[in-house]
Amino acid sequence: MFIQIHPDNPQPRLVKQVVECLLDGGIIAYPTDTIYGLGCDIFQPKSVEKICRIKGVDAAKAQLSFICRDLSHLSDYTKSIDTPLYRVMKHYLPGPFTFILPASKQVPKILQSKKSTIGLRVPDNEICRHILDALDHPLLSASLPGDMVEEYTDPEIINERLGDQVDFVIDGGIGGMIPSTIVDCTTDNWTVLREGLGVWEEG
Question: Which domains does the chain carry?
């Protein structure tokens, strides 16, 4: 289903529809503060596997990340984070960054890499915020399959290509073209793995 959600004032009725779909194991294509992504409830393993099939990747090898409303749930999904790292994350989030962190036992196994790490995002996007508020736990974030810019920026084209494979395509306006900046924080030497939209000034 193709639905238009206002990017600045998301309609509660539509947000509720999306969240009910997610809790029921549904899959969505949705806007973030960077490019559009594929998403599902992180506690629905079959939905995670379906997203991997759509992307054509092995769930065990896929580098999946999830988005949180803010940093308040950080301790639930990651092992202890020291004060300097927490301050850095608080400085950069919400924003176009994905932080690779050691995963806690509460992270569903399907989302953990072989190194027991997770990618965590807090997008600066109102639609994401409202969905996460209503869902009350993180949402899977996976990039859309596609080689042309329009395939992951224009919701109408995303709907044409993926509408029969997902439950909702959310039109929140034209998306960005540059993905998030990925920072590996699993050691004391924080490392930028991918230069994206976010400008990293540490180190």
Answer: 2-194 (3.90.870.10)
